[in-house]
Design brief:
By secondary structure, this protein is mostly beta strands. 3% of the residues lie in helices and 48% in strands. The strands form 2 sheets. Strands 2, 4, 5, 6, 9, 10 and 11 form a 7-stranded mixed beta sheet that branches. It has a 4-stranded antiparallel beta sheet with strand order 1-3-8-7. The chain is globular.
Length: 127
């Protein structure tokens, strides 16, 4: 099993920045199996949507068009942690943000391809 714990959420004014972290643990994750990671977000009554993804090596990253140029995903495999740096935040970025792990080296934009999920962290951006 893999456990994912997000942190770094909070409230910020439009134009501000936040950095989310996701710490991964568990016997499977520590067994050096390659895991791609992703960030998704969700608002009440809406589907969970892809935000950003990163391959196991960290070389390949993908972003939703709505966050491209403002958000940056990165990872530190030595610390089993993935990050989401969010700059120039907008009110429409308000959501619960979820970290996800995929038992594959390749990233994906589809939530169905991810095997493990964190509990989520709230991000609120006020205008």
């Amino acid at each position: 099993q893999v456990q994912l714990v997000e942190s770094g959420g909070g409230s910020v004014q439009a134009g501000g920045s936040l950095r989310l972290s996701c710490a991964a643990s568990g016997r499977t994750f520590s067994g050096y199996r390659a895991f791609a990671m992703g960030w998704f977000r969700q608002n009440p009554g809406k589907e969970r949507e892809f935000v950003a993804g990163i391959s196991w090596s960290g070389v390949i990253t993908t972003y939703a068009d709505s966050v491209k140029g403002r958000f940056t995903i990165s990872r530190d495999n030595g610390k089993n942690t993935v990050y989401l740096q969010m700059n120039t935040l907008k009110p429409e970025d308000t959501a619960v943000y979820y970290c996800a792990a995929r038992a594959s080296a390749a990233t994906s934009v589809s939530r169905d391809d991810y095997d493990y999920w964190g509990q989520g962290t709230q991000v609120t951006v006020s205008s």
